[in-house]
Amino acid sequence: MARFCHPGLFFMATLIFDIETSALPVESFDETQREYLFRDAERMEDLAEREKRRLEIQSMMSLWPFTSRAVCIAMLNADTARGQVLFTADDYDEEGVEAAGPVEFVACCDETEMLTAFWDVAKHYDNIVTFNGRGFDVPFLYLRSAQLNVPISRKDWLGYRYATDPHCDLAEQLTFYSVSGRDGAARKFNLDFYCKAFGIESPKSQGVTGMDVMRLMDEGRYREIAEYCLRDVVATVKLYQIWKERLAGIK
Q1: How far apart are CA 129 and CA 9, in angstroms?
Q2: 49-58, pLDDT tens digit by residue?
Q3: Which residue, 10, 65, 172, 230, has fewest beta-carbon neighbours within 10 Å?
Q4: What is the dihedral of CA 245, 247, 249, 250, to 10 degrees?
Q5: CB neighbour class for 20 (10 Å; exposed up to 12, middle 13-18, buried from 19)
Q6: Parallel, antiparallel, or unpaired: how do β-strands 103-108 and 83-88 relate?
Q7: Local structure of residue 209 (DSSP, 8 states)
Q8: For the chain, first and last CA: distance in Å?
């Protein structure tokens, strides 16, 4: 695992990361599992509505760790902006670590190798920052790692919700822990909206969004997924800096 070591990462500091996921093929599940997944759709009498609901469920499968896989993890040191982007690729090179400025792009042979490398980095950090990581990224990584029997080096990222140490989730902070629900002054927006509101370049500005990940995987465009994931993290770093300077400490 030496090829994953990065000197800019390995000291006690704050790690900011984001993940991308892609749904597993429906055919990879047995008949009982498929019946369970699409039960709501099959109850619909109207054929058009049934097919619409099936497509909706399939689009949601990338959000669930038992129906999808992690395909990329981008991470940056909040203080140095150095980091790594780990991504799975069919054409990976065992010796290939490509540097792009202070960030290394590392292709992994499979999800297990990628998760193992991530947890090896994570253990060197005191704190993490995410955007919606409490609701998605962290539980996804925990459950997916458990499923693949990958040792988890940090099991304290879903502790006391109303603390920013060791996990500062900006989606929680910018809504003041959902203080005003879905429609109030502190309603939750997506990362793209927050970025534009605070004058940060949106990670979607180059035409790629999370909805494109499955298609890019099918087309073998793994590096494009990695670059998009890194843009998400760069935006999260900038949003974190704004939160820390202007909003941190509000109770």
Answers
A1: 14
A2: 999 999 999 9
A3: 10
A4: 160
A5: buried
A6: parallel
A7: -
A8: 43
Phi, then psi, of 168 in degrees rounded to 5: -105, 110
DSSP 21: E
DSSP state of 155: -
Integer Cα distance of 57 and 22 in angstroms:
14
79, 14 Cβ separation under 8 angstroms: yes
**Quick check: helix, strand or coil at residue 137?**
helix
Question: What SS3 state is found at 128?
Answer: strand
224-250 in b/e form (b: 16+ CB < 10 A) is bbbbbbbbbbbbbbebbebbbeeeeee
Residue carrying structure tokens 């990584």: 141
Those residues whose C-beta lies under 8 Å from the C-beta of residue 56, and which sit 6 or more positions away, are none
Tokens for 216, please give them.
């890019």
Residues in the chain: 251
What residues form DSSP beta bridges with 128?
15, 167
- The pLDDT tens digits of the residues spanning 65-114 come to 999 999 999 999 999 989 999 999 987 665 556 666 789 999 999 999 99
DSSP codes of every residue in 175-197: TTTTTTTTTSTT----HHHHHHH
> Is 89 strand, coil or helix?
coil
